[in-house]
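Example 4.3 (complexes with small molecules)
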Amino acid sequence: MHELTIAELVQGLADKKFSSVELTQHYISRINQLDKKYNSFITVNEDEALNQAKQADQLRANGQANQFAGIPVAHKDIFCTKGIKTTCGSKMLANFVAPYESTVTEKFSQANFITLGKTNMDEFAMGSSNETSHFGSVCNPWDTKRVPGGSSGGSAAAVAAQLTPAATGTDTGGSIRQPAALCGITGIKPTYGRVSRWGMIAFASSLDQAGPMTRTAEDAALLLNVMSGFDCKDSTCVDQPVPDYTESLNQPLTGLRIGLPKEYFSAGIDSNVSKAIHAALDVYRQLGATIKEVSLPHTALSLPAYYVIAPAEASSNLSRFDGVRYGYRCETPENLEDLYKRSRGEGFGAEVKRRILVGTYALSAGYYDAYYIKAQKIRRLVKQDFTDVFNEVDVIMSPTAPTTAFNLGEKMDDPVAMYASDINTIAVNLAGLPAMSIPAGLVDGLPVGLQMIGNYFAEAKLLQVAHQFQQATDWHRQRPTALD
Ligand code: GLN
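Answer. The structure with glutamine bound is encoded below.
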């Protein structure tokens, strides 16, 4: 059962090949047996998941079930879930149970999905390797000495290890696409505003966006149908109709214009990764696409601009964790200032503190214009680069990450090297565009991700372009050899 995609599970449940209780039990036992190796879950929702599964089976028996009733999923531990702990990978929220439900998880519940549990992540989604989690690193199922990518590393590893058929993730600078690439799965970050951020713990509000992490593009389309849509509780959510993302999946790609930004294939990209991407591009040529080189001239400035804007927003968002209202509180504070200082000092990890310091500095009087305003100006130029290129091509392609999964510990002492893991993903968030990563090859037994970037609200196009590739190749069907 754990080999099946969501689309196949929908069929299997409808044909009564198995019940939701059997399916859920199967996944729970896999998590209980195997997750010691990966550490991809922070919380396993065992009892409640089985209750939900019983209810879903009942709905089906009564003929009241919708398409997804009884299908298990896991949620990144950044989505607030009523009654289940939401830690955001931090000591600060280690025992936090939210009094309300995020819109994304609420939509899954309304569609009668089963919540298997909450997945591990970098603390407050800050990281590219899932090593900053208070709950320990996640190991990559393809090689447990390597990182799964981050920050949605738990979700990616859980899908790759077949501990869940799919999971949710969030992407502020690459956190859906980069772990999807390193773990050999499919992930899509939608256009900013497509999916509600209500109840999703904020890192950098103008960049954060949620999306599905799955085995196939078809599954991503099915789940994006569930997740997308206007929400009056998120003022940045866009009130625009949601198409059925599965509708155009089977359309051929004849005449598709693909752009390859030369800046995304430059120094720093492993030559074997580049080779795998070029082989994938040959598949697109056979599918009828034309490919040309394009330029996104401000690419080199995206990383520094992001590392001003994201920490600036984070420093403001994280000021709510003060030891007073909720979250971690230090023991026996001497006075109010001591309470603030020690609660934050003890509750946050090193990377989060680094971001708060950088962000506070960039926003302080005297530096605001020099750093924050400058970064915002760069952001507009980065956006303009994309707008210009989308006059000439339908989709932009590149490697998702410069290398395959690196070793655990390899970049922990060098934040700048770690930040560079997102060199090809970050500009997309600055521009608010949709982008996707799909498995497109193996280098020394480790997965390579192909990134595709679309114009605003072109999710259906990206999913179609990804699905057609997956019809022609079987990279998305490769499994880590060590898998039981
Ligand atoms: N690695 C990037 C960061 O640490 C992006 C993280 C994310 O997308 N949440 O900021």
